[in-house]
Amino acid sequence: MLGAIADDFTGATDLAGNWRSRGLSTAVVLGVPEADGLDALRTHAAVVIALKIRSVPAEEAVATVREAAAVLRELGCTQVYDKYCSTFDSTPEGNIGPIADALLEETGARTAVVVPGFPDAGRTVYKGHLFVGNDPLDRSSMRDHPLNPMWDSRVSTLLAAQTSHAVAEVHIDVVRRGSVALRAAIDAADASGARYVVVDSIDGADLRTIATATGGDPLVTGGSGLALGVEAKQVAPSDLAAIPGRRVVLAGSASTATQAQVQDARRTMSSRKLDVRTLVDDMAGEEQRLLDWFVERWADDPDRPVMLYSVGDARDVAAGRAASPRASELIETLYSRLAPRLADAGASQFIVAGGETSGSVAQGLGVSVLEVGQLLSPGVSWLRARRRSAPELNLVLKSGNFGDVDLFSSAWERLA
User: Fold this and answer.
1) Structural domain spans, the chain
2) Is residue 148 reached through a cis peptide bond, with omega within 30 degrees of 0 on the bond before it?
3) In CATH, what number does 2-229 get?
4) 389-393, long-range: CB < 8 A, 24+ apart
5) In 192-229, which ranges are continuous DSSP H helix?
6) Do domains 2-229 and 246-414 have the same CATH topology?
7) Please, how many CA atoms are within 13 Å of residue 274, restricted to the half-sphere of its CB?
8) Of 330, 346, 239, 345, which Cα lies nearest the Cα of 281?
9) 121: which of 73, 330, 345, 378 fits an S-S bond (Cβ 3.0–4.6 Å)?
10) CA–CA distance, 191 with 349 (Å, rounded to integer)
């Protein structure tokens, strides 16, 4: 069994979707599972423990990761995959470095590769520098990220600020010589005292080389791209079926990709933009008004998706901050409270945009385990959500930067 720990919920489903695309039946469990829930996970080839620890204090993140690592040991996982965002989202204090340091100890690994590259999603690493599309990370839209603005593109520099361990690099010329040469380079870095090795990746063949070279390592770290390097199984799991009911889009991300998806979806579905000021003044009242609005829209056309979003363009980001310095927290709270009421009102298919938003919605819905279904685009899949004492749901939990521009309109057609 393969095991992974992801620092947010969308990252977990991103990784799980990539493993599933290689033919591995994969489950995502939200939070550290209890001992009595482990038997159900043993039927899968891969398990991802999804945590909401990207922005919490480092000490809290590390303590939770240690608990998750103990569960993966109990399940008998032969390798732990430390999953973080492919744009290496973090502050100079962490949490990527402290989490990786803890997992070095928990797994007993001498070294771990650092592979944020995900070429299918436009994330590549060349000579140690992380690119988003054609732009170095610090010249991409990530330089203005509202939570973690990225100030450098060299991954070893970003990581070195967060760990006391030495960080080495292996560049593309070595990777292109094959897995044996790459393994030798990783071992040489280990011998020189490095505990982390940043490895270039420009295309899928590079990921396959890295996966082969590190197949016996107790710990690997990176974005979800490295999962695509795993050898494919002959028989893929079946696609998920649609659970009948109403359709909802809840977009909380401020990313440029989500803004484009919102604008595209507004042409074809009923939509409404959140006003942060109303959440400051009357959270409960606005929650009820929004629920009533959803129900009215479904009465007009039961099969038409209905969308609620927080950011339609860059001006909305500034407006939210002006309304409250706690704008993001207020939006997450609203979505976590509204989502279960929408489900009670008949919604069964949800698309949720934004890492923090997805975590809040999943927790609000009482989701315990996610079965991973058909891939919609790199890093985005349909999911079947098992809930505590409530009917199952279809979910898409997507990172803000991921997904095709028409995702909110086209995803429904992919349910079997």
Assistant:
1) 2-229, 246-414
2) no
3) 3.40.50.10840
4) 390/340, 390/343, 390/365, 390/366, 391/243, 391/343, 391/348, 392/243, 393/243, 393/343, 393/347, 393/348, 393/349, 393/350, 393/365, 393/367
5) 204-213
6) no
7) 32
8) 330
9) 378
10) 51
Asked if 200 and 175 touch (Cβ cutoff 8 Å), the reply is yes
Which of 150-154, 166-170, 296-300, 383-387 has the least mean pLDDT?
150-154
Cα–Cα dist 292/271, whole Å: 14
For 190, which DSSP code?
H
CB 315 within 8 A of CB 214: no
- What is the Cα–Cα distance from 385 to 396, expressed in whole angstroms? 10
- If one counts every other C-beta atom within 10 angstroms of the C-beta of residue 14, the result is 30
Residue 126's DSSP bridge partners are 129
* pLDDT tens by residue, 17-38: 999 999 999 999 999 998 888 9
CATH code, 246-414: 3.40.980.20
Mean local confidence (pLDDT), 332-355 = 97
User: How many residues are given for the chain?
Assistant: 416
Residue pair 281/384 in contact by the 8 Å Cβ criterion: no
Dihedral angle computed from the Cα positions of residues 395, 400, 402 and 403, in that order, rounded to the nearest 10 degrees? 60
